[in-house]
Amino acid sequence: xxxxxxxxxxxxxxxxxxxxxxxxxxxxxxxxxxxxxxxxxxxxxxxxxxxxxxxxxxxxxxxxxxxxxxxxxxxxxxxxxxxxxxxxxxxxxxxxxxxxxxxxxxxxxxxxxxxxxxxxxxxxxxxxxxxxxxxxxxxxxxxxxxxxxxxxxxxxxxxxxxxxxxxxxxxxxxxxxxxxxxxxxxxxxxxxxxxxxxxxxxxxxxxxxxxxxxxxxxxxxxxxxxxxxxxxxxxxxxxxxxxxxxxxxxxxxxxxxxxxxxxxxxxxxxxxxxxxxxxxxxxxxxxxxxxxxxxxxxxxxxxxxxxxxxxxxxxxxxxxxxxxxxxxxxxxxxxxxxxxxxxxxxxxxxxxxxxxxxxxxxxxxxxxxxxxxxxxxxxxxxxxxxxxxxxxxxxxxxxxxxxxxxxxxxxxxxxxxxxxxxxxxxxxxxxxxxxxxxxxxxxxxxxxxxxxxxxxxxxxxxxxxxxxxxxxxxxxxxxxxxxxxxxxxxxxxxxxxxxxxxxxxxxxxxxxxxxxxxxxxxxxxxxxxxxxxxxxxxxxxxxxxxxxxxxxxxxxxxxxxxxxxxxxxxxxxxxxxxxxxxxxxxxxxxxxxxxxxxxxxxxxxxxxxxxxxxxxxxxxxxxxxxxxxxxxxxxxxxxxxxxxxxxxxxxxxxxxxxxxxxxxxxxxxxxxxxxxxxxxxxxxxxxxxxxxxxxxxxxxxxxxxxxxxxxxxxxxxxxxxxxxxxxxxxxxxxxxxxxxxxxxxxxxxxxxxxxxxxxxxxxxxxxxxxxxxxxxxxxxxxxxxxxxxxxxxxxxxxxxxxxxxxxxxxxxxxx
Amino acid sequence: xxxxxxxxxxxxxxxxxxxxxxxxxxxxxxxxxxxxxxxxxxxxxxxxxxxxx
Lengths: 815, 53
Hints:
The complex is a heterodimer. Chain A has 27 helices and 28 strands. By secondary structure, chain A is α+β, with helices and mostly antiparallel strands. Chain A has 6 domains: 1-74, no CATH class; 77-165, Alpha-Beta Plaits, CATH 3.30.70.100; 175-305 and 425-468 and 788-800, no CATH class; 317-406, Calcium-transporting ATPase, cytoplasmic transduction domain A, CATH 2.70.150; 485-524 and 643-756, HAD superfamily/HAD-like (Rossmann fold); 527-642, Calcium-transporting ATPase, cytoplasmic domain N (3-Layer(aba) Sandwich). Chain A has a 7-stranded mixed sheet with strand order 16-28-27-26-17-24-25, with helices on both faces. Chain A has a 6-stranded antiparallel sheet with strand order 8-7-9-15-10-13, with no helix packed on it. Chain A has a 6-stranded antiparallel sheet with strand order 18-23-22-21-20-19, sandwiched between helices. In chain A, helix 9 (279-303) runs parallel beside helix 27 (790-809) and helix 16 packs across helix 26. Mean pLDDT of chain A is 78; it is low at 1-6 and 731-736. By secondary structure, chain B is an all-alpha fold. Chain B has helices at 3-27, 36-40. The model of chain B has no long low-confidence stretch (mean pLDDT 80). The longest helix of chain B is centred in the first third of the chain and has 25 residues, at 3-27. Chain A binds chain B through residues 1-2, 54, 57, 61, 107-109, 111-112, 116, 129-133, 178, 181-182, 185-186, 189-190, 193, 196-197, 213, 216-217, 220, 223-224, 227, and chain B through 1, 4-5, 8-9, 11-12, 15-16, 18-19, 22-23, 26, 31-36, 39-40, 42-45, 47, 49-50.
């Protein structure tokens, strides 16, 4: 419910998007007679557009800030790629239609703004935004408007939109949900109406309901049960038929048989005018069962949501330099049309369309989707950049190394679909049990019928009891127990940045006895971190750090990034170094505040600062010196730092009774130092990959279940050999990952999270299987002894399925 | 009591009519977005344009 008070706004934030104003921001827009500051020309342009459209009310009605429109003032040329000739959009002769996915919808005012804006677009016939799904449906006349214009119009008011061709698959899913919703409605309506006609028969005392009236009620019930049987129960007929054709006994078989038996017997009784009818039970059973199906469908849909986002990361187009290096004319082409060795230009803010190698320029790339690393990673000429990465700073030219469909991100998606294809052992077991269960159940129902028929000499009691047996049993709960729990857990982990690709991952991780951790890149960052600044003069170390950061500002060297990161953390000063000269492999020489500094190796700095100070360095630490003419200022100790969550992760596994092993290729002394620091008992250093493999296999021969965490490329063989393995995600490494799970967010503690979720998942699966077993063991004999009538059995079955699904859904919240 | 012989068939017909209306509404997308219309209705978009005030 949007309230109509405007958002409170301080002067220091952008009125449009709510982000802090950068220093010296000079953009502002007059909205409803008041001048408001904006953070960037993009937001200012959007706000101006909104004012020009006389839609200032947007600002009054909104309940959340708009998405930042930085960079929105230029219409990206790739939007013009979409034209009316595209067969995807065709509706009829001169109309086109499409569904667009709109990003950045925050509140009701957005909906209103988008629809208003499009209504003013010439040629647009209708525009409807579905808030729940963030999908925008537009219909337009092909002579007056192009899809590019529509996307451009949305772009101009600050919303990113792209044609939603999310594959017919998604469309099918939507239709499936809609059909199931309708079936549910039909079954519900049938059920309620049939209840009305059945009530007199239940309530009337003997002899008060005359035969003609009873027959009327029965015929009316029969008529109203027909829609439920012919339409609402279709999923069960289809399911049963499909499984019979495949010569197996699916869980729909007893359901369909139960419905058919009850309905058939009731029809015969109605036609003959004697015997019992169960129309009420039939409709109610169909309704309740559809309810639990609906619940399951929604659960599955939710479980796939995180994956769907991943699939939109690769851009649809790329800017190709066709005649490079002869001339630099840019052609916008479909990303799928890129060939190896094509040269493309990637502007800031754009996503890389395919895996490439930079051939000109240096920039920083946002790899957060691929590696989870949130800080942009510097890249320069000759560096490999994966498709799906986002260019965060400068224009670069890059040579395509792999086609878009073979890119790292595509490989990642293939890994995922592979994971979806396999079933974990525990689910296979449940499926096998369920199949035997159904077969046993059918025989048991037959035996029950025979027993009561022989006892009574007529089918009057035997028939409803056999139906109750068929209906009450719940193979559904048995076969739903595992997959729903695993899907919910996998979804939760993906949202936490852990991509589970192996089917057995969670199950095995829970059983693991040994957790083997790699050192470099896993427990440590794998890149230098500034540990200590040692002052060598009276100058404060903080001051020295800022000088060093100013000198390193333009460098992409790992040591430079470490110093800059440390300076950022301490509050970076906006100092400039001038007349910088780099001596590769030695250091930098330049002026800060008109004073000449040198930064680099001891030898390099000694050339201006004099005799270097004598001191012993600790193993594994790289020193970087800072000096002025005639004086040494500071020494920066850089060292491959421990990840902040390493301790917490090791502690978690130790507390849960798993043996933690540190397995490193580095010298034993270094490995021991890290091991002691973290309190790991078993530390093994100086191992080559082959030794590591041997070590893991030896553990396995002793009957241990080994979980291995490594950083992907160099540990591929060990990761493959371990029972369950985690790879630290990192761009190109992903494609080669032989791991069962990839830590996309690069946080080591995610392994501990996964272990916790694995334990919870196994617990939920056990609870579910236990519940399904207890329910069936109690309910089937009760039905066989005639204690349950068909309708009560229907309730029991639906409730038991719902319990299983709801229990599994708890995992999505990580409970 | 005899009225029931008329009323019950009528009620059956009514249910089928309701089903038919439901299917039409569903085809027209009535149930596709159950969130948006509730938000849209509170917008005052029938204000006169500012230049006519």
